[in-house]
Amino acid sequence: MDTPRGPLQPTGEGTAHVARLEPSAALRELVVHYWLPTWQIPAGANHEQRILSYPGCNLAIEDGIGTLYGPVTRLSLKRLSGSGRAFGVLLRPGTGALLCNIPVPELVDGSIPALDCGLDCAGAIHEALHAEGTIEHQQRSAIAIFEDWLVERLPTGMDAEGLLLNRICADIESTPGIGRVAQLCEHWQIGERALQRLVHTRMGITPKWLLQRRRLQEAAALMGRGTGPNLARLAHALGYADQAHFTRDFAGVTGMSPGEYVRQVQAGSVGS
Protein backbone atom coordinates (compact mmCIF):
# COMPACT_ATOMS: atom_id res chain seq x y z
CA MET A 1 0.00 0.00 0.00
CA ASP A 2 3.07 2.18 -0.20
CA THR A 3 4.23 3.28 -3.64
CA PRO A 4 7.97 3.36 -2.98
CA ARG A 5 7.85 0.03 -1.18
CA GLY A 6 5.02 -1.91 -2.83
CA PRO A 7 4.19 -2.91 -6.41
CA LEU A 8 2.19 -0.75 -8.74
CA GLN A 9 -0.95 -2.74 -9.46
CA PRO A 10 -3.15 -0.87 -11.94
CA THR A 11 -6.65 -2.16 -12.49
CA GLY A 12 -7.86 -3.25 -15.89
CA GLU A 13 -5.60 -3.61 -18.94
CA GLY A 14 -2.00 -2.50 -19.13
CA THR A 15 1.22 -3.18 -17.28
CA ALA A 16 3.23 -1.33 -14.68
CA HIS A 17 6.39 -2.19 -12.82
CA VAL A 18 8.57 -0.51 -10.22
CA ALA A 19 12.28 -1.28 -9.91
CA ARG A 20 13.82 -0.53 -6.52
CA LEU A 21 17.54 0.07 -6.33
CA GLU A 22 19.73 0.73 -3.34
CA PRO A 23 21.79 3.94 -2.99
CA SER A 24 25.56 4.00 -2.81
CA ALA A 25 26.94 3.02 0.58
CA ALA A 26 28.03 6.60 1.32
CA LEU A 27 24.48 7.91 0.83
CA ARG A 28 22.47 5.37 2.84
CA GLU A 29 21.84 7.83 5.65
CA LEU A 30 20.26 10.20 3.12
CA VAL A 31 18.36 7.86 0.79
CA VAL A 32 16.26 4.77 1.53
CA HIS A 33 16.10 3.63 -2.08
CA TYR A 34 15.32 4.70 -5.61
CA TRP A 35 12.02 3.72 -7.19
CA LEU A 36 11.82 3.71 -10.96
CA PRO A 37 8.36 2.96 -12.36
CA THR A 38 7.59 2.09 -15.96
CA TRP A 39 4.08 1.68 -17.33
CA GLN A 40 2.23 1.05 -20.56
CA ILE A 41 -1.52 1.61 -20.57
CA PRO A 42 -3.65 1.22 -23.73
CA ALA A 43 -4.95 4.38 -25.35
CA GLY A 44 -8.15 5.59 -23.78
CA ALA A 45 -7.62 3.59 -20.58
CA ASN A 46 -6.96 5.21 -17.23
CA HIS A 47 -5.72 3.21 -14.27
CA GLU A 48 -5.44 4.24 -10.66
CA GLN A 49 -3.93 3.01 -7.42
CA ARG A 50 -4.60 4.09 -3.87
CA ILE A 51 -1.44 4.66 -1.88
CA LEU A 52 -0.61 4.84 1.81
CA SER A 53 2.83 6.40 1.62
CA TYR A 54 5.94 6.02 3.73
CA PRO A 55 5.99 8.97 6.16
CA GLY A 56 8.83 10.97 4.67
CA CYS A 57 9.73 13.14 1.71
CA ASN A 58 9.88 11.83 -1.83
CA LEU A 59 11.59 13.40 -4.81
CA ALA A 60 10.12 12.48 -8.20
CA ILE A 61 11.14 13.31 -11.76
CA GLU A 62 8.76 12.80 -14.65
CA ASP A 63 9.07 14.23 -18.15
CA GLY A 64 12.18 16.11 -17.04
CA ILE A 65 10.38 17.96 -14.23
CA GLY A 66 11.39 17.38 -10.63
CA THR A 67 9.06 17.69 -7.64
CA LEU A 68 9.77 17.35 -3.91
CA TYR A 69 6.78 15.91 -2.05
CA GLY A 70 6.37 16.30 1.68
CA PRO A 71 5.07 13.65 4.08
CA VAL A 72 1.56 12.52 3.15
CA THR A 73 -0.85 12.05 6.03
CA ARG A 74 -3.74 10.58 4.08
CA LEU A 75 -4.46 8.12 1.34
CA SER A 76 -3.46 9.44 -2.07
CA LEU A 77 -4.50 8.43 -5.55
CA LYS A 78 -2.10 7.79 -8.43
CA ARG A 79 -3.52 7.70 -11.95
CA LEU A 80 -1.60 6.13 -14.81
CA SER A 81 -2.26 6.61 -18.51
CA GLY A 82 -0.32 6.18 -21.72
CA SER A 83 3.24 4.95 -21.36
CA GLY A 84 6.16 6.40 -19.51
CA ARG A 85 8.99 6.18 -17.02
CA ALA A 86 9.77 8.14 -13.92
CA PHE A 87 12.55 8.48 -11.39
CA GLY A 88 11.81 8.57 -7.68
CA VAL A 89 13.88 8.93 -4.52
CA LEU A 90 12.54 7.86 -1.13
CA LEU A 91 14.45 10.07 1.29
CA ARG A 92 15.39 9.21 4.85
CA PRO A 93 13.29 10.96 7.52
CA GLY A 94 16.05 13.46 8.28
CA THR A 95 16.87 14.35 4.67
CA GLY A 96 13.90 16.43 3.58
CA ALA A 97 14.69 19.31 5.93
CA LEU A 98 18.24 19.49 4.54
CA LEU A 99 17.00 19.89 0.97
CA CYS A 100 13.81 21.88 1.42
CA ASN A 101 13.89 25.67 1.13
CA ILE A 102 10.84 25.99 3.38
CA PRO A 103 10.13 24.45 6.80
CA VAL A 104 9.06 20.83 6.34
CA PRO A 105 5.84 21.34 8.36
CA GLU A 106 4.71 23.65 5.55
CA LEU A 107 5.33 20.85 3.03
CA VAL A 108 3.14 18.20 4.67
CA ASP A 109 0.54 16.95 2.14
CA GLY A 110 2.08 19.32 -0.40
CA SER A 111 4.94 19.71 -2.85
CA ILE A 112 7.37 22.23 -4.31
CA PRO A 113 9.38 22.27 -7.54
CA ALA A 114 12.63 20.41 -7.01
CA LEU A 115 14.36 23.28 -8.78
CA ASP A 116 13.59 25.36 -5.68
CA CYS A 117 15.83 22.93 -3.77
CA GLY A 118 18.66 23.38 -6.25
CA LEU A 119 17.96 20.23 -8.26
CA ASP A 120 19.17 21.31 -11.70
CA CYS A 121 19.72 17.84 -13.17
CA ALA A 122 16.11 16.69 -13.70
CA GLY A 123 16.49 17.07 -17.47
CA ALA A 124 19.73 15.06 -17.50
CA ILE A 125 18.11 12.29 -15.43
CA HIS A 126 15.15 12.17 -17.83
CA GLU A 127 17.52 11.89 -20.81
CA ALA A 128 19.48 9.11 -19.09
CA LEU A 129 16.28 7.11 -18.62
CA HIS A 130 15.59 7.32 -22.36
CA ALA A 131 19.13 6.90 -23.70
CA GLU A 132 20.31 3.90 -25.70
CA GLY A 133 21.16 0.75 -23.81
CA THR A 134 19.46 -1.64 -21.44
CA ILE A 135 16.91 -0.49 -18.89
CA GLU A 136 19.36 -1.42 -16.13
CA HIS A 137 22.07 0.76 -17.67
CA GLN A 138 19.63 3.65 -18.10
CA GLN A 139 18.53 3.41 -14.48
CA ARG A 140 22.08 3.22 -13.13
CA SER A 141 23.09 6.23 -15.22
CA ALA A 142 20.15 8.23 -13.87
CA ILE A 143 21.06 7.28 -10.30
CA ALA A 144 24.69 8.28 -10.84
CA ILE A 145 23.60 11.74 -12.04
CA PHE A 146 21.38 12.21 -9.01
CA GLU A 147 23.99 10.99 -6.55
CA ASP A 148 26.62 13.33 -7.98
CA TRP A 149 24.19 16.19 -7.39
CA LEU A 150 23.30 15.04 -3.88
CA VAL A 151 26.94 14.78 -2.81
CA GLU A 152 27.55 18.28 -4.12
CA ARG A 153 24.36 19.57 -2.45
CA LEU A 154 25.03 17.91 0.93
CA PRO A 155 28.81 17.41 1.07
CA THR A 156 28.83 16.70 4.82
CA GLY A 157 26.01 14.15 4.63
CA MET A 158 23.48 13.76 7.42
CA ASP A 159 23.75 15.86 10.57
CA ALA A 160 23.63 14.41 14.11
CA GLU A 161 20.00 15.39 14.66
CA GLY A 162 18.99 13.74 11.40
CA LEU A 163 20.92 10.58 12.27
CA LEU A 164 19.02 10.31 15.54
CA LEU A 165 15.69 10.79 13.77
CA ASN A 166 16.61 8.15 11.17
CA ARG A 167 17.38 5.64 13.89
CA ILE A 168 14.21 6.36 15.84
CA CYS A 169 12.10 5.93 12.70
CA ALA A 170 13.94 2.72 11.83
CA ASP A 171 13.19 1.46 15.32
CA ILE A 172 9.49 2.13 14.80
CA GLU A 173 9.57 0.37 11.43
CA SER A 174 11.48 -2.73 12.56
CA THR A 175 10.40 -3.36 16.15
CA PRO A 176 6.96 -4.91 16.66
CA GLY A 177 5.23 -3.92 19.84
CA ILE A 178 6.31 -0.29 20.04
CA GLY A 179 2.97 1.39 20.42
CA ARG A 180 3.50 4.30 22.78
CA VAL A 181 5.60 7.45 22.63
CA ALA A 182 6.81 6.75 26.17
CA GLN A 183 8.44 3.53 24.94
CA LEU A 184 10.42 5.46 22.35
CA CYS A 185 11.49 8.07 24.90
CA GLU A 186 12.67 5.41 27.32
CA HIS A 187 14.55 3.42 24.68
CA TRP A 188 16.31 6.45 23.19
CA GLN A 189 16.76 8.32 26.47
CA ILE A 190 15.05 11.42 25.14
CA GLY A 191 12.38 13.59 26.73
CA GLU A 192 8.90 13.59 25.21
CA ARG A 193 9.01 17.30 24.40
CA ALA A 194 12.41 16.93 22.75
CA LEU A 195 11.14 14.00 20.68
CA GLN A 196 8.01 15.92 19.68
CA ARG A 197 10.12 18.90 18.60
CA LEU A 198 12.57 16.74 16.64
CA VAL A 199 9.91 14.88 14.69
CA HIS A 200 7.80 17.98 14.03
CA THR A 201 10.73 20.15 12.92
CA ARG A 202 12.27 17.56 10.61
CA MET A 203 9.13 15.77 9.38
CA GLY A 204 6.19 18.06 10.12
CA ILE A 205 4.29 15.35 11.99
CA THR A 206 4.20 13.85 15.51
CA PRO A 207 5.71 10.71 17.08
CA LYS A 208 2.19 9.48 17.87
CA TRP A 209 1.25 9.82 14.20
CA LEU A 210 4.36 7.83 13.18
CA LEU A 211 3.39 5.02 15.52
CA GLN A 212 -0.19 5.02 14.28
CA ARG A 213 0.89 5.00 10.63
CA ARG A 214 3.18 2.04 11.27
CA ARG A 215 0.37 0.08 12.89
CA LEU A 216 -1.89 0.81 9.94
CA GLN A 217 0.86 -0.23 7.51
CA GLU A 218 1.13 -3.54 9.38
CA ALA A 219 -2.64 -3.94 9.24
CA ALA A 220 -2.75 -3.21 5.49
CA ALA A 221 0.05 -5.71 4.83
CA LEU A 222 -1.67 -8.44 6.86
CA MET A 223 -5.03 -7.84 5.22
CA GLY A 224 -3.41 -7.75 1.80
CA ARG A 225 -2.05 -11.28 2.26
CA GLY A 226 -5.31 -12.94 3.18
CA THR A 227 -8.98 -12.98 2.50
CA GLY A 228 -9.95 -10.92 5.52
CA PRO A 229 -8.49 -11.74 8.95
CA ASN A 230 -10.43 -11.53 12.20
CA LEU A 231 -10.47 -7.76 12.71
CA ALA A 232 -10.94 -7.92 16.47
CA ARG A 233 -7.90 -10.18 16.77
CA LEU A 234 -5.91 -7.97 14.39
CA ALA A 235 -6.80 -4.83 16.34
CA HIS A 236 -5.64 -6.46 19.57
CA ALA A 237 -2.38 -7.65 17.99
CA LEU A 238 -1.66 -4.10 16.83
CA GLY A 239 -2.18 -2.66 20.29
CA TYR A 240 -5.67 -1.19 19.87
CA ALA A 241 -8.07 -1.23 22.79
CA ASP A 242 -10.84 -2.59 20.58
CA GLN A 243 -11.90 -3.13 16.98
CA ALA A 244 -13.87 0.12 16.86
CA HIS A 245 -10.76 2.26 17.53
CA PHE A 246 -8.79 0.36 14.88
CA THR A 247 -11.59 0.72 12.32
CA ARG A 248 -11.87 4.45 13.02
CA ASP A 249 -8.12 5.07 12.58
CA PHE A 250 -7.92 2.90 9.46
CA ALA A 251 -10.86 4.65 7.82
CA GLY A 252 -9.57 8.07 8.88
CA VAL A 253 -6.29 7.56 7.04
CA THR A 254 -7.29 5.39 4.10
CA GLY A 255 -10.80 6.68 3.47
CA MET A 256 -12.24 3.15 3.56
CA SER A 257 -13.17 0.56 6.14
CA PRO A 258 -10.93 -2.50 6.68
CA GLY A 259 -13.55 -4.65 4.98
CA GLU A 260 -13.66 -2.40 1.94
CA TYR A 261 -9.86 -2.40 1.80
CA VAL A 262 -9.78 -6.21 1.72
CA ARG A 263 -12.33 -6.24 -1.10
CA GLN A 264 -10.28 -3.76 -3.13
CA VAL A 265 -7.07 -5.75 -2.58
CA GLN A 266 -8.85 -8.82 -3.88
CA ALA A 267 -9.98 -6.81 -6.91
CA GLY A 268 -6.38 -5.67 -7.51
CA SER A 269 -7.03 -1.94 -7.15
CA VAL A 270 -4.87 -1.35 -4.08
CA GLY A 271 -1.12 -1.92 -3.84
CA SER A 272 -0.25 -4.07 -0.84
Mean residue pLDDT: 84
| Strand order of the biggest β-sheet | 1-2-7-4-5-8
Q: What sequence of helices (H) and strands (E) makes up the elements? A: EEEEEEEHEHHHHHHHHH
- Total helix count? 10
Query: Could you say how many structural domains there are in total?
Result: 2
Task: Report on the biggest sheet.
Answer: 6 strands, antiparallel
Shape: globular
* Estimated structural class: alpha+beta
Radius of gyration: 19 Å
Strand content: 15-25%
Keywords: DNA-binding, Transcription, Transcription regulation
Organism: Paeniglutamicibacter psychrophenolicus
Protein name: AraC-like DNA-binding protein
InterPro entries: AraC_XylS_family_regulators (IPR050204), DUF6597 (IPR046532), Homeodomain-like_sf (IPR009057), HTH_AraC (IPR018060)
Put the structure in a nutshell.
It comes from Paeniglutamicibacter psychrophenolicus. The chain has 272 residues and is an alpha+beta fold.
